[in-house]
Amino acid sequence: MNEVAFGFSRNLRSFKKLFSHARDYNDLHLSPFQPGFAQELKYAMREAATIRFDVSGMRCLTGKHGVLTGPAELNCEGSTNWELRTIFDDADLRAKTTVYVDGVITTFEDLLEGET
Length: 116
Prior knowledge:
Elements: E1 3-7, H1 9-18, H2 37-47, E2 50-54, H3 80-89, H4 91-95, E3 97-101, E4 104-106, H5 108-113
Parallel strand pairs: 1-2, 2-3
Antiparallel strand pairs: 3-4
């Protein structure tokens, strides 16, 4: 598996038009309602050479209760917030992740500064 794509489910179809070869949870035949969903996503993240993450529409990324800067346990396991935080907290995953807002590349640093 070379690339995986993450982001809000409602945005993945259009995001994947930019990166048709990147696999999302549907391509991996995973369901958010099946046991072990989060563990399978984490495995896919580790196995991928490249991670593409669409943060379009995501809110509260920073601050006391933010996805990236608040307590990690506030992000429900398997959720989009959890996916982003899992990547953010892991140096290896973070190094192979490209972050996008509305199809434009941004950085984790810009997200932290609110410059998305």
